[in-house]
Amino acid sequence: MLKDSLIRHAELADDIQSFIVNYRSMTIASAIFYTFREYENYMQIYRTDKSQYRSRLEAFVTMWTNSLVDDREWHNDYEPTLEFGQNLYRYWFIEQVEGYTYHQRPLASLVAYAENSIRRKTELILEYRQREPLVEQDVRYPSATPGFYLNGRLVDDDRIAFSLPPNMLIAEELKDDPSWAGYKEIYFAE
Fold first, then answer.
1. Which of 35, 76, 78, 83 has a Cα at 20 to 30 A from 152?
2. CA nearest neighbour of 33 among 159, 164, 160
């Protein structure tokens, strides 16, 4: 289980920092649903080929770093240097990992949750687009333009289609709930 590695983060700190620094060297597909709606603002989904990684921890840290960079819109502000890795580990990773609760979830519940979330976010994006037609065509994330971003590029609204891979085997839920208004759920499926 991923939890076993994450609770030992202090003894694995050098490896974790190395994974953070090298996060751009892995091939990861990102899908960001940005709705511009309070409490339902966005959802991020990352998908990768596990054969690129030596461990589940490396895969998780790499995708976690991609998510944090997207979430904080740091794309143009930071280069993945050793200092970057140390700071992300020290000021972000430790706090989040120590706040997670861990649950093994049936794969069916992950799929149902994700499909419902995808459907809801798609509806919100299409409702917004009916009120505010898209003016600019070549939009990259981060952007104030609501929509569906695939690998950082805004996708035409009439082409929004996203499905989960059919061959997932297990799912772990990592949940952080520091306050009612702000929570984070991570599903790590394999």
1. 83
2. 160
Residue listed under structure tokens 């649903």: 33
What is the distance between the alpha carbons of residues 36 and 128, in angstroms, rounded to a whole number? 8
Distance CA 188, CA 2 (A): 9
Question: Would you call the peptide bond into 142 cis, given omega within 30 degrees of 0 as the criterion?
Answer: yes
Kindly report the pTM of this predicted structure: 0.87
What are the contacts of 71-77 at 24+ separation with CB within 8 A? Answer: 71/44, 73/142, 75/142
Dihedral angle over CA of 138, 142, 148, 152, nearest 10: 70
Each of the 190 residues of the chain gets a pLDDT tens digit; together they read: 788 899 899 999 999 999 999 999 999 989 899 988 887 888 888 888 889 999 999 999 999 999 889 888 888 778 889 999 999 999 999 988 888 888 887 888 888 888 898 899 999 999 998 998 888 778 888 888 899 999 999 987 666 777 777 777 677 777 766 554 555 667 777 6
What dihedral do alpha carbons 112, 118, 121, 127 form, nearest 10°?
-110
